[in-house]
Amino acid sequence: MNSAQEHGVNDGAAGPATRPAAAGATLELLVHGVGGATPEHMLDDPRTVRISGDDTAAVFRRADDAEAENGPTAPDGRPVPEAYVWCNLTSGNGARALWLLLLPFMVANLAHWMRPSARDRARTVRLYGLLVRLVGLSLTVLLVAAACEVALDLTAWQCAGTRACAERHTWLGFLSPTASGDGWWSPPGRRLALAALLPAALVGLLWYLSRRTWSAYESEQPMVHDPGEDTARSALGRPGFWYGRRLVARLRGAHTAAGLLTVAAAVAEAAARHDRATGGPAALETLGRLLEAALVLGAVLVVAVVCRRGRSERHLDREIDASLVRHLPLGALALLLLALVYACWERPGWASDGRLPGDAAFGGIALAQGALVIALAVVAHLLYRSDADPRTAMRGLAGPAVAMLACALGGVMSGGVSQRVADWVDGTRGAIPGAPVLLTWQASVIPPLLAVLLLLAGWQAWRTLRLARAERAAVERDYVDEAAEADEAKDPQRTRRIARARAMATLTDRGPLFVAAVAAVSLLLGTGALAGALTTGRTPSEAARTAHPFVHGAAEAAQALGSWLIGLGFLLFVALGRRAYQDMSARRTVGVLWDVGTFWPRAAHPFAPPCYAERAVPDLTWRITTWTRTTGGRLVLSGHSQGSVLAAAAAWQLTPAVRGRVALLTYGSPLERLYGRWFPAHFGPAALGALHEEVGCWRNLYRLTDPIGGPVQLPGGAGPKVDCEPMRDPMAHARNDLHPLPAPILGHSDYQADPAFDRERGRLLDRLRPGLPGQRPGDAP
Fold this sequence. Notes:
InterPro entries: AB_hydrolase_fold. Keywords: Membrane, Transmembrane, Transmembrane helix. This is Integral membrane protein. The protein is mainly alpha-helical. Among the domains are: about 5-85 and about 610-765, Rossmann fold; about 445-585, no CATH class. The protein is built from 29 helices and seven strands. Strands 2-3-4-1-5-6-7 form a seven-stranded mixed β-sheet, sandwiched between helices. Helix 13 crosses helix 14 and helix 13 (about 400-425) crosses helix 20. The longest helix is centred in the N-terminal third of the chain and has 38 residues, at about 120-160. The two termini are about 35 Å apart. The model is unreliable at about 1-25 and about 770-780 (pLDDT under 50).
């Protein structure tokens, strides 16, 4: 720690260093939620200055409060507001809209953090992390295999090798055999070698993006803890939790090598299969077998590296396995170059016919993913049984279900792009065999999956309607004081609107049912598609040709509709990314997805979008620690929505002495409602209960109309001491002197508009007056 950091000097910041002349300073550090916010909006003042930070994330104050600590304390006792703006970490520029294409990787990474809490099951916990990392590795292989299917099989092997198809695409003319003779690139092996540059470039792009985001995010080191200090009783308080540099670098090397080996295998296998079948030169056949053995050895090394070690959280791990990270991708690149040279060798009489062995490749990937998900479910169930919590989502099976969704997303994206490219190069002419049969089967199961989802959505809509009707009586009871004053002010239509808003807010609590249904149906239908493709070797319509006419018609309809839907879904996905690149409002919407999905460090997949909390949490920790140390004042850490999750993570990272001098004010907070249920190992009752005991004091505000925020509900009677009574929303049912116009239903926004906000913040500050002890378990603020 340098001297500037030691004394809280803001190097390059717009505001001055905090050196108060008078004690008793109070500060409210505001942290916004998803979707972003401007400092002007957060501070309710058009004149703001940056106190510390850069264009990516910074702390702002009102211009009049820039040197508030050097002046007298505000006569009304209000704290100085300070806004931490972090929205540019996730939605700052248009290039980040391309992160949509990395969605399966992000979902797989979430599965790592969804493991159930466990007691004395360290080996089982490590096995859980290992299985998720293997699922992530399979997704990388699937993505590169899909790129190979498009570039090598559909384009270079099938279309360029078929004169009728190549004539419709003039840009393939130099690759296609012609009546006047073949060009240098016309032989199949050379076509495959040239086309292999596309998937290899994709792997290089993923490597570059991962390394670039690593430099921008994970290079920010958190505040170093003294090993002798008693840190928070949560994994989020460990010194190395928000510094995953070593693991990400190791996984990046392994996944890059896996991608390059996949491309090399696609090229080498086609040439080696021809050499074995035709009895070509012995030297070529021997070279092919040696190359295949080297590829198998490389794959074993990649799997061994992925299995070797997980995250290091108990200490700040600055070391990187430099030789492993560097040599493993270079070795895979050398094998790829050798495979390209081997494929380019002259082979008279070799012509491309049929498909490359894509069905075997995609079938093996699908089989491996299914086995990994089932094994992950067994391990998750064992962990849940060791420390069962009824509020845990899906009884501990949320992680395996989300891993299944990641595999399904990867399958949809790979199948979608393959189907659309096959239709583009050939259409309905039938000049080429087209995409692998397995991808057609996978597309055919999408209509029944959507049918199940529509039935489930209809059932949930009916339940919500019934709940809204039942909620009307509760709304009338909550506003009985207004009804007693003026019966003519009753508005049945407004009562229905409030009841409907409350009922709609409960849909969040039924999210696990949707995830469980999609995951289970996807697993069952995916298994059926794999079995159908492997046993028949034909498309669903061809396999059902001799069946009953109704069955045959249903198979044809499912195949056609599924192919159309999978292509439409992929095109909509790309269109959303394009629109987000051009439109700021759409970019902000995409940013909301990353605000929720990229809170967690990359522990299972190095190509997932980067973790913004690895920058935001150290920022907050540094600001809180330096301000309290230099002023000796009181600080309220005020977090809304996702900002409350960042606030809790920052509080866990503080030293016990500083943590006890900080009050936590959360509102619209998903700490228990979402994070506690979906991530029980890190935000479960034990972790939140420990946070309640360790911070100076804590209050949580929520509304019944809020679909995201909710009560903390700590066990043992502590919950009511943290949670306030539900805030009224709207603040008035009918028009009155204070609300001559109808009060809006705020839901998840504008918690500061309620007078209860200032009242609860004032109570927290009273608890933090100098000389008073910190909050004890069971004390009410």
